[in-house]
TrEMBL record:
Transmembrane segments: none
Sorted UniProt keywords: Cell wall, Glycosidase, Hydrolase, Secreted, Signal
Family to which this protein belongs: Belongs to the glycosyl hydrolase 28 family.
Keyword Transmembrane helix: no
Protein name from the UniProt record: Polygalacturonase
Length: 451
């Protein structure tokens, strides 16, 4: 009997809870591996409440002043060990606000921080230097709902309270082509380190949900991210030109890629030259009309050393998608994706060099990406319409592509072949349906070195 995504996520959450809270269970079942220890969780002795600054959780009162004054107090008093800002139960409507270092934003059970839909007052910030312009439109971009730049030691956590972006007004502007600038993310950290995001529900983001860019030591764990499947570009978690990122034990159902690892866009990303590296993605369950685990398509600074494992995907566009394009440049290497379950998907695995547009006409079409050392193993798919597609570039073929222990079940006909491949070199072992002839059967020193 197949379990629903919600049941699977609930079961996993309970399993992890009891594993860590019961000595008896820990004795029987070793703790699940985790990368979350890259950022220590600090206890804050100093605690304040948003209500101390006039916060009102009636869903009507605008609380921008309260949030900004509370964070101003944290920044200027600089209590030893930092300060916890408590948001009690209630619905706190607010415009965007900036966090500061050495603070915890703590949402109680039943607490909702809800974004104002007055887009006319939304602040603008400069485009990211590795993108050269807004991701959607030339020029600047709207700042994220909750924003941090140049910070360290920041925690967003609680008792599964909600951060609600009320994104439908932004989605409608995108559909009607009335946007003036690129839509805001829900949470974005720039040039920051030692960040923990856990035990919070993120809902209806205007654009990307969680976007760490130019960051290091980031933990995203035990979060739920929700948006309608037709909501445009509501990516779940997008590590971007960032290193040492841990994404674990979460449920994501949204309108774009569940996780997408990025590193800048064409000539701007090449010039900025900051890769994403050391990315671990583990024990995710999710659903999306786009990709489950994605690399790209903006990868001009390079992406390397990515591990994704124990992933459950339902009702997907593509299960695993590594995507780049001519003009991107960048090196994509040492990507390992394993133990993936995919149910109801248009395409199981896609590795392609013809995906994504360009920021402007200044890109160099001869800046070709290099894709090598991609290992995908232990994948089981049910009702997958097409097994796989691998399209390398004629002048930069993808190499060391290793597929092993993959079973993708689904009806395929003459107009929808099981695999399509071009300009790729690699190996395959125990793959069903059998992939394209460009992938040789396993030989000593080929797939074995990645297993």
């Amino acid at each position: 009997m197949l379990l629903s995504p919600f049941f699977t996520f609930t079961f996993l959450s309970l399993f992890f809870f009891f594993s860590f809270s019961s000595d008896l269970v820990v004795a029987a079942y070793p703790p699940a591996p985790t990368c979350s220890n890259i950022v220590p969780l600090r206890y804050r002795n100093d605690k304040i409440s948003i209500t101390d600054f006039g916060g009102v959780g009636d869903g009507i009162t605008l609380n921008t002043k309260a949030f900004r004054e509370a964070i101003f107090r944290i920044y200027h008093l600089r209590r030893r060990g930092g300060t916890l800002l408590y948001v009690p139960p209630g619905v706190y409507l607010t415009e965007s606000f900036n966090l500061t270092s050495h603070m915890t934003l703590y949402l109680a059970a039943g607490a909702v921080i809800k974004a104002s839909q007055d887009t006319g007052n939304w602040p603008l910030i400069a485009p990211l230097p590795s993108y050269g312009r807004g991701r959607e439109l030339p020029g600047g971009r709207y700042t994220s709902f909750i924003h941090g730049d140049g910070l360290s030691d920041v925690v967003i956590t609680g008792e599964n309270g909600t951060i609600d972006g009320q994104g439908d007004v932004w989605w409608n502007m995108w559909r009607k082509k009335t946007l003036k600038y690129t839509r805001p993310s829900l949470v974005e950290f720039m040039n920051s380190k030692d960040i923990i995001i856990s035990n919070v529900i993120f809902k209806n983001s205007p654009f990307w949900n969680i976007h760490p860019v130019y960051c290091s030591n980031i933990v995203v764990r035990f979060v739920t991210i929700l948006a309608p499947h037709d909501s445009p570009n509501t990516d779940g978690v997008d590590p971007d030109s960032s290193s040492n990122v841990c994404i674990e034990d979460s449920y994501i159902s949204n309108g774009d890629d569940i996780v997408a690892v990025k590193s800048g866009w064409d000539e701007y990303g090449i010039a900025y030259g900051r890769p994403s590296s050391g990315i671990t993605i583990r024990r995710l369950t999710g659903s999306s009309a786009f990709a489950g685990i994605a690399v790209g398509s903006e990868t001009s600074g390079g992406v390397e050393n990515v591990l994704a494992e124990h992933i459950n995907l339902f009702n997907m566009g593509v299960g695993i998608h590594i995507k780049t394009n001519s003009g991107r440049g960048g090196l994509i290497k040492n990507i390992t994706i394993s133990h993936v379950y995919v149910e109801n998907a248009r395409l199981g695995i896609k590795i392609a060099g013809d995906v994504g547009g360009h920021p402007d006409e200044k890109f160099n079409p001869n800046a070709l990406p290099v894709v090598k050392g991609i290992t995908i193993k232990n994948v089981w798919g049910v009702n997958v319409r097409q097994a796989g597609l691998i399209h390398g570039l004629r002048n930069s073929p993808f190499s060391d592509i290793c597929l092993s222990d993959i079973n993708l079940h689904g009806s395929t006909g003459p107009r929808s072949p099981s695999w399509k491949c071009s300009d790729v070199f690699g190996f395959a072992y125990q793959v069903s349906p059998w992939p394209c002839s460009q992938l040789s059967t396993q030989e000593p020193g080929s797939c074995a070195i990645y297993s």
